[in-house]
């Protein structure tokens, strides 16, 4: 099995979590995904651009972030091997993004264009369901994160991150993890040294 086939099998496993597809549905879906590779620190989508692709991460780490008036950026979300990626609201609504999407490491991705996505969802009800469930799952995760950011202490946010995703300490530079948690890098370093799980 070549790398392309292995990548599609990984995508299939993720896609089928939202419900089983028939062989015809899966073949139509799989045919629309195309492999791409990017170097580290590549901007895939810039603020003001319309997201043209939905990505499946074969290998690598990406982050979506917002740049405020003071040019300070705030990391919103990470994507890494085995997850979906992209600026989902810009992609689905075809409106300019408020955020940036960049690769933090060299990345190998599968990507699906918006015209293919739109056509697939219009043609196959099971894929429309996949899109709806995927969007609802992403929204649920964002709402949980919003609660954490608004109500948890710095230590609680740190503990939740390490309990949910302990591998991120090795994958993602700590300055981005601090930004993701809404902490300054000094506080993050202190928590890293003092909090034991």
A few lines on this structure:
The chain has 197 residues and is of the alpha+beta class. It contains nine helices and eight strands.
Radius of gyration: 18 Å
- Give the biggest beta sheet: 4 strands, antiparallel
CATH domain class of the largest domain: Mainly Beta
Domains, number: 2
Pfam families: cNMP_binding
InterPro entries: cNMP-bd_dom, cNMP-bd_dom_sf, RmlC-like_jellyroll
Protein name: Cyclic nucleotide-binding domain-containing protein
Domain Cyclic nucleotide-binding: 36-124
Topology:
Elements: H1 3-15, H2 23-30, E1 33-38, E2 43-45, E3 53-59, E4 61-67, E5 73-80, E6 84-85, H3 88-93, E7 100-103, E8 107-113, H4 114-123, H5 125-151, H6 154-164, H7 168-171, H8 174-181, H9 185-194
Antiparallel strand pairs: 1-8, 2-7, 3-6, 3-8, 4-5, 4-7
Helix pairs in contact: 4-5, 8-9
């Amino acid at each position: 099995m070549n790398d392309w086939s292995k990548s599609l099998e990984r995508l299939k496993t993720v896609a089928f979590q939202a419900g089983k597809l028939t062989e015809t549905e899966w073949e139509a879906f799989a045919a629309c995904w195309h492999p791409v590779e990017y170097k580290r620190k590549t901007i895939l989508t810039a603020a003001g651009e319309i997201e043209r692709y939905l990505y499946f991460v074969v290998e690598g780490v990406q982050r979506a972030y917002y740049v405020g008036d003071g040019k300070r950026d705030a990391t919103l979300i990470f994507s890494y091997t085995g997850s979906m990626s992209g600026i989902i609201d810009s992609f689905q609504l075809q409106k300019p993004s408020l955020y940036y999407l960049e690769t933090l490491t060299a990345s190998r991705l599968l990507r699906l264009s918006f015209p293919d996505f739109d056509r697939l969802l219009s043609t196959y009800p099971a894929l429309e369901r996949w899109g709806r469930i995927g969007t609802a799952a992403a929204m649920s995760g964002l709402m949980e994160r919003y609660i954490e950011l608004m109500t948890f202490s710095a230590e609680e946010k740190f503990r939740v991150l390490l309990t949910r995703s302990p591998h991120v300490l090795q994958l993602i530079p700590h300055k981005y993890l601090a930004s993701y948690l809404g902490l300054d890098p000094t506080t993050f370093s202190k928590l890293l040294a003092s909090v034991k799980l």
